[in-house]
Design a protein that fits this description.
The complex is a heterodimer of chains A (113) and B (114).
Chain A lengths: L2 E5 L2 E4 L5 E8 L5 E7 L5 E9 L2 E4 L5 E7 L2 E6 L8 E8 L8 E2 L3 E5 L1
Parallel strand pairs in A: 2-11
Antiparallel strand pairs in A: 1-3, 3-8, 4-5, 4-9, 5-6, 7-8, 9-10, 9-11
Chain B lengths: L2 E3 L4 E5 L4 E3 L2 E3 L5 E8 L6 E7 L7 E2 L2 E6 L4 E6 L8 E9 L6 E2 L3 E6 L1
Parallel strand pairs in B: 2-12
Antiparallel strand pairs in B: 1-4, 3-9, 5-6, 5-10, 7-8, 8-9, 10-11, 10-12
Classes of the chains: A mainly beta (113), B mainly beta (114).
Chain lengths: 113, 114
């Protein structure tokens, strides 16, 4: 069966510090991978998606970046965090297009202080 | 452009009763897919139900069903025989088949009263 792992679960970082959130998928190959952010009281905003190794599409311009160094690994990074980067970050995967079911990780609560 | 609108920030239902959550999806595409996702207090997003726009029959999953009115761009979720475990945030979402990124609404917080 397929599983998705996302870590850490919670993270408190000072403004200006770097960020690295990791997501891995097991039990499937060549998944589509996604990073979403959920700000308090708001819906999910798509940040990045990837259809293959090294292929990253950005939906929202910001100081975050994403990388996919391996088929089932997706990393969200920042060189310098801003207060506005605080939020709940969710990784997800789908077998093909997102018109198929999305499988979500358990999320990372990031607080930038 | 596509937009997903959930006009009910919060809803409440008595246990065992029925509740309907509203959603509108505006797109110029003729082929698209609609979803309802549930986010319980654990914050794990879970797919509740999926509807393909080209299908006239409304999707049903056990106690969950949708009322899809394509002309009105309406995609409501009906929860029958509500249970305490149904308490959660519910997000409506849509994806175009041609460029399939999923767009979410802002969510409806559902409370279930015992």
């Amino acid at each position: 069966s397929q599983t998705i792992h996302q870590w850490p679960a919670t993270l408190v970082q000072p403004v200006g510090s770097p960020l690295s959130l990791e997501c891995t998928v097991e039990g499937t190959s060549n998944p589509n991978l996604y990073w979403y952010r959920q700000a308090a009281g708001r819906g999910l905003q798509l940040l990045f998606y990837s259809v293959g190794i090294g292929q990253i599409s950005s939906e929202v311009p910001q100081n975050l970046s994403a990388s996919r160094p391996q088929d089932r690994q997706f990393i969200l990074s920042s060189k310098k965090l801003l207060l506005s980067d605080s939020g709940f970050y969710l990784c997800a995967w789908s077998r093909g297009q997102p018109n198929e079911k999305l499988f979500f990780g358990s999320g990372t609560q990031l607080s930038v202080l | 452009a596509q937009t997903v609108t959930q006009s009910q920030p919060e809803m409440s239902v008595q246990e065992a009763e029925t509740v309907t959550l509203s959603c509108t999806y505006d797109t110029s595409e003729s082929d698209y897919y609609l979803f309802w996702y549930k986010q319980p207090p654990s914050r794990q997003m879970i797919l509740v139900i999926r509807q393909e726009a080209y299908k006239q029959q409304n999707a049903t999953e056990n106690r969950f069903s949708v009322n899809f009115q394509k002309a009105a761009k309406s995609f409501s979720l009906k929860i029958s025989d509500s249970q305490l475990g149904d308490a959660a945030m519910y997000f409506c979402a849509g994806a175009r088949s041609s460029q399939g990124n999923l767009i979410f609404g802002k969510g409806t917080k559902l409370s279930v009263k015992p």
